Amino acid sequence: MYGWIWRHLPGNAWVKALLSLVLVVAVVYVLFQYVFPWAEPLLPFNDVTVDNQ
Amino acid sequence: MAATTDTEHEEQSGTDGPPEPAARRRGRAGRIVARTVSVFGELLITAGLVLGLFVVYSLWWTNVVADRAADKQADRVRDDWAQDRVGADGPGALDTKAGIGFLHVPAMGDGDILVEKGTSMKVLNDGVAGYYTDPVKSALPTSGEEGNFSLAAHRDGHGAKFHNIHKIEKGDPIVFETKDTWYVYKTYAVLPETSKYNVRVLDPIPKESGKEKAGHYITLTTCTPVYTSRYRYVVWGELVRTEKVDGERTPPKELR
């Protein structure tokens, strides 16, 4: 999977490394900005109120 | 990893069939198995990294975001007070959306906690404490009426404003600051663990704390143990006195 991505990135090793870094940053951004905020309320870690549900 | 799988596979199945094309076929099959195993492994590693990142997100990033939001909102409330835009006691003039005041609990550390209306995640995720509107409506100290001023805030992440709630002991002061009054409460009971369905802790007269008569109470709720929300932690206080805010906003002696 990662090997496949590496092989399909253009340029020499340095360019590939740089592009990989950009990809990693993009993935982390999407996770922090969209995926985790969506997943968080579904997980039982952060309910602080008492309620009768 | 890939090489091992390859050889093992060939060894196992290298006895039957015509040698040449079969070997080639099995070589290809081996490669497919190897590739599948390697992709599966990479997916597992990825899942591990994502879970690790989720911990970073929960315990660090949400605090960064929440503190930023809380600071901004707190500044706005202080500005409003300074410019006299909000009459804390005037009917209809109380801007509950922006926050009604600040909570100071020296036992939990320095700093003030902005108090806003509601205990939905949307409110609490901004790094503030919220007063209950549901399931039991909170009384507000500013109304002057007897009742229970019930609050909730996060224990971890999202500002973690009640992180150190376990450090509050009986007798410790809890001070609520509004535009023109300091409300000084004194902790009189702590319930270190209760069910999340125990809404009676929010009652106007919280009987579980040992009180039988109506009074001016304050209730802090959050989740416990830390990093989970299996149970709820409750701290009760009772109003001792109020103090007028002076020109310099000199804090009451409990905070000095």
UniProtKB/TrEMBL annotation, chain A:
Q: What is the organism of origin for this protein?
A: Streptomyces fuscus
Entry superkingdom: Bacteria
Q: What keywords does the record list, in alphabetical order?
A: Membrane, Transmembrane, Transmembrane helix
Q: Which residues cross the membrane?
A: 12-36
Protein name as annotated: Uncharacterized protein
Could you confirm whether the keyword Transmembrane helix appears in this record? yes
Automatic annotation (TrEMBL), chain B:
For this protein, the record's InterPro entries field holds:
Sortase, Sortase_Class_E, Sortase_dom-sf, Sortase_E
Coiled-coil regions listed in the entry: none
Presence of the UniProt keyword Transmembrane helix in the record: yes
Residue numbers spanned by region Disordered: 1-27
The keyword Lyase appears for this protein: no
Q: Fetch the Gene3D superfamilies from UniProt.
A: Sortase
Q: Which Pfam families match?
A: Sortase
Where do the catalytic residues lie?
A: 154, 223
Q: A GO molecular-function term, please?
A: hydrolase activity
Q: Mark out the compositionally biased spans (Basic and acidic residues).
A: 1-12
Identify this protein by name: Class E sortase
